[in-house]
Amino acid sequence: MSAEFLSINPDNPQERLIEEACRILQKGGLIIYPTDSVYGIGCDLYNQSAIKRLCQFKGIKPNKLNLSFICYDLSDITTYVKRVPNPIFKSMKKALPGPYTFIFEASNRVPKIVDGKKKQVGIRVPDNNIPREIVRVLGNPIISSSLKSNDSILEYPTDPELIYEEFGKRVDLIIDGGYGQNQGTTVVDCLGESPEIIREGLGEVDLIL
């Protein structure tokens, strides 16, 4: 069975289409969606069977899944991380929404991923209204994992129609939000008192350090 294919306006997402994406997530579906960097694949953070499907899609064991998820805004962050030092919070206020992933120690509100024992979580607030509106309507974060292509030249697929051709029989929904980027986020380690860049991506480092 092929995935649904929804074209959603990234500037002003259509409410009925956002609600359709949420219905699919609530039923345990996998969705491919745009961000402010590469296209992502994800599911409802609190649906264990969907997380198992995501791990199968990526060909990894659940305890190997690096858990990152999308929040609507900074107000969600204190719910899912144990502690945010003030200098790091100030950096996040400057940088978000934007193409960054901030790594924190997870709070007990973050579900245990099947048999996973990881205590760290990546937080995303992308500068893209589509995933943020999905999170707002759904009422909780969605998992964010970069969608990688089998193409030996292009690591991340950028064309939604080609994404559908490659992955349309393996997921439940593909959202066309326009062409994606071919570079990931800047990843920031926030486990200490001050932020440390562990991967430079689209996000400007100067906003963080």
TrEMBL record:
SUPFAM superfamilies, alphabetized: YrdC/RibB
YrdC-like domain mapped to chain residues: 15-203
Pfam families, alphabetized: Sua5_yciO_yrdC (PF01300)
Highest taxon in the source lineage: Bacteria
One Gene Ontology term of the molecular function aspect: double-stranded RNA binding
InterPro entries recorded: DHBP_synth_RibB-like_a/b_dom, Sua5-like_dom, SUA5_domain
NCBIfam families reported for this sequence: L-threonylcarbamoyladenylate synthase
Protein name, as recorded: tRNA threonylcarbamoyl adenosine modification protein (Sua5/YciO/YrdC/YwlC family)
Organism: Sediminitomix flava
